[in-house]
């Protein structure tokens, strides 16, 4: 195959997306490479996939890219990639492969054997195992590493099955699982494709036989099941049968099993197990009936609470109980809760399955419980006390209380200042470019942020990463991906969802409340009088120097490279720089471009920005190109630019100077500003900047005076 391994991986991700658009930054995250790498590989493969497979890439500003072509051609590409011999694995594939190998092994496996399988060193495998171990803790599993014997996963059979199911759900789409149920055409060479390797957890013939039997049973017994629940049950049964054949037994609480025997779900589960015993020719332990019953009941609960009133726990009564919990907690904390339906419905929906789990003695795990108790101990105790009062006949374990705390805390936060978000830090490579554009949009979309601060990557070491919100326009290789969210500077719909998801994940990891906030409200009277005057003087001087030194340049760039063009521009902007210093500055600008797009969507502008010790003062300049050149925009697509904007600053500069430079980048969200920068004379641009910054300075002083 002519496509490189990375191009094959990109194609597979696009195939998984189906008709959905995906951003380049999201592709980069999935494949653990840079956006620049994605851009380069896509550019190199477009012609190939058109010529060889009649497929094209459709781009949509603000959304990303998707694969266009017939389903037949897409399936053909998928098969060709699977047939192509894989030489190595991406990091996420490697960890999945190690997990799959260990979970299905009946004895310890040598570290060297895992390294050879993944084609990496034993040190790399050992590092992967550290991350795998953290993931396995959520299933009450642990990794045992013993010199001389090898590596194995320790834990109950039930926990191992849960981990396997989670692996399948995390790595395979519903479409892929459904396709597996419907046909037998999957590749047999599991090493070629990590999805196929994962599907090795279950025998395909077994899965399809199960599907046929389930179809018959559900049709005969008039028991409807949603596609997602149907797939989940099929995979559960396939895993169970494989493990039973290997002698891995599972146990189910006998008292709970007796309680379940009168239910419709138990009757259906018994029939399923009976049919499968006959079909496969070996006995299935009665404990398995219990797990199938629980699976059916769980599926019923998930659909019922969304779509209809159900008898289980009586939804109207549950809603009353949920409201009572919120009312009691709000009263005790001397606050209120958001009385709209969202908060109440969320807690009501949670309580139904929660009470079912407690009633049937299902094991409840809450890996965040220690953190919740540490950071929100007061709220935890209040919620626990009131839950005990509301449900006086039920012993609710602390693990479940922890989940209820999340609902109550979120409800209280919506309308009251008892819980707030900490500062949000928006990061770009320099702190003066795209981050400020993004911050403005974030303020509009996420008003709950107490404060949004723009910083550069150089300033990250000053931030308490564990207790801050980090939103970045560039990858942060030294920070774990769970600690920040990577989005584009133009905050697309997909970006908004990524931020919402990130906030949901870290909500209860932050542990800050309003009492811990230091607004320093007491100020000396003299400071109140003199501070605005001093600030106005600072801002005015900075803006005056910036506008006075502004240059509108033009460059005859026909026949010369981008690097040479930038050298000539930087020499004109900073004539005091030596040739070596100019080369270093250009290298910095190009490095920033490689980290992510710098083109302004829907415009012919590109924004170069940098902070460097070589630069002695802040400056803003615009250069017109005689001949446009191609560049990647901030949303990933390739555009032609005719004007280059430069925001330059020393490494060490005042906060006010950075604010002024960043304000210019915000202007690139405004159509009027873009039009002026594209077509205006120097006089037009200077007049526009003077008018804008006059208003800006007044607003800044008023804001500071109000604090």
From TrEMBL:
Does the keyword Transmembrane feature in the UniProt annotation? no
**InterPro entries tied to this protein:** BglG_antiterminators, HTH_11, PRD, PRD_sf, PTrfase/Anion_transptr, PTS_EIIA_type-2_dom, PTS_EIIB-like_sf, PTS_EIIB_2
Keywords attached to this Swiss-Prot or TrEMBL record, sorted alphabetically, are: Repeat, Transcription, Transcription regulation, Transferase
GO BP terms, alphabetized: phosphoenolpyruvate-dependent sugar phosphotransferase system; regulation of DNA-templated transcription
Protein's organism: Shimazuella alba
Q: Which PROSITE patterns match?
A: PRD_2, PTS_EIIA_TYPE_2, PTS_EIIB_TYPE_2
Q: What is this protein's record name?
A: PRD domain-containing protein
Which SUPFAM superfamilies does the UniProt record give? Answer: Phoshotransferase/anion transport protein, PTS system IIB component-like, PTS-regulatory domain, PRD, Winged helix' DNA-binding domain
Indicate the segments forming the PTS EIIA type-2 domain, all copies: 545-692
Which branch of life, at top level? Bacteria
Q: Residue ranges of the PTS EIIB type-2 domain?
A: 422-511
A GO MF annotation of the entry reads:
protein-N(PI)-phosphohistidine-sugar phosphotransferase activity
Domain PRD, chain residue ranges per copy: 201-306, 313-418
Pfam families, alphabetically?
Answer: HTH_11, PRD, PTS_EIIA_2
